[in-house]
Amino acid sequence: IEVSPTTIKIFRLKPALLTSLAATSSRAFVFSARRSPPAVRNIAFQQVTSRSMVATDIDGKAIAAAIRKEIKDEVTALKDQNKVPGLAVILVGSRRDSQTYVRMKKKACEECGIASFGFDYDESVTQEELLAKIAELNADPNVHGILVQLPLPAHLDENAVLDAVHVSKDVDGLHPLNTASLCSTSTHVGATKLNWKDLSSVPFHIACTPQGCIELLDRSGVEMEGKNAVVIGRSNLVGMPVAMLLMHRNATVTIVHSRSQNVPDIVKKADIVVAAVGRAEMVKADWLREGSVVIDVGINSVDDPEAKRGYRLVGDVDYASAKEVVGMITPVPGGVGPMTIAMLLRNTLNGCRRA
Are the beta carbons of 48 and 10 closer than 8 angstroms? Predict the structure, then answer.
């Protein structure tokens, strides 16, 4: 008998007869033989528990492209009303990664018909200069979204800069008032109920990456209501807001972090896992429940001498091993990343609608 993770091969005394038993689920199997079934009818087979199914990739590139097409159509309709959504992007310093992200955002704006305005500053820019420009953009009716590319140089007060952006133009969804709105459950009698199944209808800006995570789940047919969801990480950028969004969709949410105990055991109970901790391939296959759905927000570089650049990008989840266990998973790259920019465009469009 030869056993592999997906197949049991049984060799009988007669070499001519090979029976291959392939497990397709924990409750069923199929077999094939080189002879007709009557030749093997006296063989007793036991139930096999291994899986031959491999997880489905959640294609963030394709979903983001579909959303950008929807946004482009809506922008065209707004232009017929003489309204053009506008996004202002402030870049400080010469970090290559920040420059790349800004170029990508401007290109996406152009693709969708959104006007983009770029303001680049040397790393020596003062806090006063930056705040003055933000005040000017707050008052500009042609600007519906203001994005300050992070990180900022150490001499600038990042919180003060972000808080200076008017709440209605905070397309990053990081303003304290937008954060507070997201954390309001509105469960009390008389409260206005929001439609959390249509994030475009929510009357304030939601952080882009968490919003993108929910869109990936929705557009992949993943039901959130009543499910156990575990968020790994508690950052203001992803962990906390995505936990709130999952709760608004009536999932039972657990947040695990660097001080949590028995993290693998907690994650193992999850129907939905959102990994946003920033540690390369931290989440292993044996942490994950069979058939669960994994949204991998992490993007980390690891050395790879065989790669053209000498490194490759990986997520917070050990993708290769997890794919043998879970039902659906986002790849890295090509999963959550494209959605972040798509949601930035959506927030800018929503800002124009509400102006």
Answer: no
Q: What is the pTM of this model?
A: 0.84
Q: What is the pLDDT of residue 337?
A: 95
Which residues are registered as beta bridge partners of 183? none
* Least confident among 21-35, 90-104, 191-205, 337-351: 21-35
Closest CA to 348 of 65, 106, 59, 91: 106
State how far the Cα of 263 lies from the Cα of 275, in Å rounded to an integer.
12
d(CA 187, CA 203): 17
Residue 9 has pLDDT above 90, yes or no: no
d(CA 222, CA 80): 36
- Best CA proximity match to 150, nearest among 138, 141, 137, 159: 159
Point out the residues that are catalytic: 105, 149, 172
Single-letter amino acid, residue 163: D
pLDDT the model gives residue 189:
72
The terminus-to-terminus CA distance of the chain in angstroms comes to 71
Cα separation, 274 vs 255, whole angstroms: 10
